[in-house]
Amino acid sequence: MKNPLYAVYGASGYGREVMPLLRAQLQAQKIDSSRLIFIDDNPETDAINGHSIFKFDDFMQIEASERFVTLAIANSIIREKLEKRCQENNIQFLDVAASNVCVMDNVNIGEGSILSPFSSLTSNVQIGRQFHANIYSYVAHDCIIGDYVTFAPGVKLNGNIIVEDHAYIGTGAVIKQGKPGEPIVIGHGAVIGMGAVVTKSIPPGVTVIGNPAKPLIRLT
């Protein structure tokens, strides 16, 4: 008899936002949400919002025919490490999407994505693994997004943009539309600050802020 177990990895802020989305998704599929829990490596309590919290090793000790998880961890480096941990333990990844997410034509998304309420993905969009789109974010036409990319709330990604692996785009940031054959590129591991307006490509690993966005200068 099948007895699957489902989990949101991360019981802090974002995990608590993802949990009701996954719960509703399971209920719509007539899956028993009593088998839905949190995993947290440093839990501060035994349960939150009606769901038990387990450390990873304890999660693995619960009897289950299959195990499914969504990684609600904002830090993309940690998210990648947890993905590998789950793969090594034969845990499958869940794609989570709010019921009001808008997905249009020819949109391809890698496994483990989380699409929060009011997110929109328009047309001819390619997205890699473990993508997070927080509330009110959108991805316009002809964009390519790599693995482990994180959108904070209200990100506006206009057309013909490439976002490389591990990039983080802050709340309310706007990325100007590129041109066919001349996309704006957000480099590997780049960080776009809250409310920034990006009008040109950003090199890998660079943090930018402001309008127009410029590299952050750190005082030593």
* Helix fraction by DSSP (H/I, runs of at least 4): 10-25%
Distance between the termini: 61 Å
The CATH class of the largest domain turns out to be Mainly Beta
Strand residues, percent: 25-35%
| Shape field | globular
Structural Rg: 18 Å
Q: In terms of per-residue confidence, which ranges show pLDDT below 50 for 5 or more consecutive residues?
A: none
- Overall mean pLDDT stands at 95
Largest sheet: 8 strands, mixed
> So what's the oligomer here?
single chain
Please, how many domains? Answer: 2
Summing up helix and strand content along with how strands pair, one would put the structural category as: alpha/beta
The count of β-strands is 25
Order of strands in the sheet with most strands: 7-10-13-16-19-22-24-25
SSE string, helices as H and strands as E: EHEEEHEHEEEEEEEEEEEEEEEEEEEE
Which homologous superfamily in CATH is the superfamily of the largest domain? Hexapeptide repeat proteins
Assign the CATH architecture of the largest domain. 3 Solenoid
The CATH topology of the largest domain comes to: UDP N-Acetylglucosamine Acyltransferase, domain 1
Number of continuous helical runs: 3
Protein name: Acetyltransferase
Family: Belongs to the transferase hexapeptide repeat family.
Domain PglD N-terminal: 7-82
List the main descriptive attributes of the protein structure presented here:
220 residues, alpha/beta, Rossmann fold, UDP N-Acetylglucosamine Acyltransferase, domain 1, 2 domains, 8-stranded mixed sheet, 25 strands, globular
